[in-house]
Amino acid sequence: MTSREIRQAFLDFFVSKGHLIVPSAPLVAKNDPTLMFNNSGMAQFKDYFLGNGTPPSTRIADTQKCLRVSGKHNDLEDVGFDTYHHTMFEMLGNWSFGDYFKKEALHWSWELLTVVYQLPKDRLYVSVFGGDEKDGVPFDQEAFDIWKEILGSEDHILLGNKKDNFWEMGEVGPCGPCSEIHIDLRDQAEVDRVPGKSLVNADHPQVVEIWNNVFMQFERKADGSLIPLPARHVDTGMGFERLCMAIQKKQSNYDTDVFSGTIGFVANASGKKYGEEKWADIAMRVVADHIRAIAFAISDGQLPSNVRAGYVIRRILRRAVRYGYTYLGFREPFLYSLVPLLAEQFDGVFPELKAQQDFVAKVIQEEEAAFLRTLEKGLTLLDKILVQQPGEAGGVIDGQTVFELNDTFGFPVDLTALIAREKGFTIDEAGYQKALAEQKERSRKDAATEKSDWIELAEAGKTVFLGYDQLESDSVIL
Ligand code: ATP
Ligand code: MG
Ligand code: MG
Ligand code: MG
Questions:
Q1: Quick one: pLDDT at residue 387?
Q2: Residue 82: CB within 6 Å of ligand 1?
């Protein structure tokens, strides 16, 4: 099956079970001060679960564009380094708003995976919430019994902890146990050697979580007690790219037809082959991943900028440019040339990209050009520093200089380290961390006296973003 067919089969399956298909909400969360980007399928339905609105149907399904680069879910640092976490990904989901519950949801999950998609039953594992006495939340006996009936035994059922198998909207509000489905995609020899069950939720690249079924059945009160909800809901999310990896029998999401076009294009443009060099491979994955986040964010109306969501998008773009520059040899804007390919790939699925394809490409190209100029400036400066300091092997660039290159010229630390290394220098990592910590401390003091998210630093004549802790340091988005 192609990825297009896989997505359509999901939607068709849930239509056959009485679901209404709705479009994806934009990547950028609108009207939700607690969320910068939509990071799950349920985000756009929050009001229905809170009883603040009525859904158009009690059964809904869709594919939602998600972005996990900030806040509670931040996978950015894994992207490129592993093969199954993305910044932007599609989450396939089905929902019951006070309609069906665990029995239907779990039976349908199993039917879709094993009958429609024909995934091998002996490679699937499920987890149910094992209970947490301290927190007063009970073992999910109901889900356990349903799975035992479906599977015919307990062999492939795992009991999970609160972190993986219990969902809460916040400190108070709706919550409930979840049941995840994982798949073991390793070679048979490996499976014979090490049982798949022992690798579930253990960060093994070929034993991955594909689907999560959340059952909202409690409400957490302010005093910590749990009371049953009068209307119980189902909220599920399945990672589309991981599902494609499983169905297409690949070892990595990037080997599926979701990414093969972009990876092939980047490989071709850089004159390198994917799968031959560790860092070039990482860079190709970073580029293939990030261009999606950037292109879809812009087509959803979020331009790169110096504040909030725009700042996050700008830095994702710069991360991609930098990997391309450092490991793939791109010296001219190149990301923008991937836009037509994506527009075609998602035509009819997320039509907003094709509709604005030229505009999106132009914005990206200008951002790239501007950042490449900064990179060049940093390089020239670095060259001067490397000449000033003793040239013999073993020279060290002091931490304050590394920090200034980063802070003033936007010159990423690991690029400094890389170039330094090429010229026989090292960088004073500890000194850099110290300078960074001092700057953070200054920011915190400034922030404490400021009411808004960002302020003009008059003396430096530049604008600094002070909200969102995780954005303060370049170590997050390099
Ligand atoms: P993981 O443990 O692998 O990080 P998760 O438990 O954080 O996943 P959920 O919040 O349960 O993920 O989201 C539902 C599904 O979305 C997951 O089962 C997975 O298939 C998919 N998913 C989650 N995060 C990502 C990501 N960064 N990239 C691609 N797919 C993802
Ligand atoms: Mg996660
Ligand atoms: Mg998980
Ligand atoms: Mg999960």
A1: 73
A2: no
Residue/partner pairs of 390-398 with CB below 8 Å, 24 or more apart: 391/424, 392/424, 393/424, 394/424, 394/426, 395/424, 395/425, 395/426, 396/425, 396/426, 396/427, 396/428, 397/425, 397/426, 397/427, 397/428, 398/428, 398/431
Selection from 445, 318, 416, 422 nearest residue 373 by Cα: 318
- 3-class SS at 221? coil
Closest CA to 274 of 208, 328, 344, 319: 328
Query: Given this model, what pLDDT does residue 416 score?
Result: 83
Ligand 1 atom nearest 242 alpha carbon: 20
DSSP E strands, 385-473 = 395-397, 425-427, 454-457, 462-465
Joined together, the tokens standing for residue 421 give: 């290394």
- 99 CA to centre of ligand 1 in angstroms: 25
Positions in the chain whose pLDDT score sits under 70: 388-394, 422, 446-478
| Interatomic CA distance for residues 321 and 335, integer angstroms | 7
Nearest atom in ligand 1 to 73's CA: 7
Residue 85 Cβ inside 6 Å of ligand 1? The answer reads: yes
* pLDDT for residue 475: 31
Mind listing the pLDDT tens digit for each residue in 350-397?
A: 999 999 999 999 999 999 999 999 888 887 888 787 776 655 556 888
Pick from 118, 119, 83: which is nearest to 258 by CA? 83
In this predicted model, what pLDDT tens digit does every residue of 264-310 receive, in sequence order?
A: 999 999 999 999 999 999 999 999 999 999 999 999 999 999 888 99
pTM: 0.87
Return the bridge partners of 64, or none: 91
Q: Which domains does the chain have, with CATH numbers?
A: 3-254 (3.30.930.10), 260-375 (no CATH), 389-478 (no CATH)
Centre of ligand 2 to C-alpha 164, Å, is 9
> Given the structure tokens 């190209």, which residue do they identify?
365
Structure tokens at 5: 């067919």
Taking CA atoms only, the protein residue closest to ligand 1 atom 25 is 85
CB 7 within 8 A of CB 92: yes
Specify the pLDDT at position 256: 98
Q: pLDDT averaged over the chain?
A: 89
Instruction: Determine contact, residues 282/274, Cβ cutoff 8 Å.
Output: no
Looking at residue 469, its pLDDT comes to 33
Q: What is the pLDDT of residues 135-149, one digit of tens each?
A: 889 999 999 999 999
Buried b / exposed e along 455-472 (16+ C-beta atoms within 10 A): beeeeeeeebbbebeebb
Q: Phi-psi category of 69—alpha, beta or left, where left has phi over 0 and alpha has psi -120 to 50?
A: alpha
Neighbours of ion ligand 3 (CB under 5 A): 209
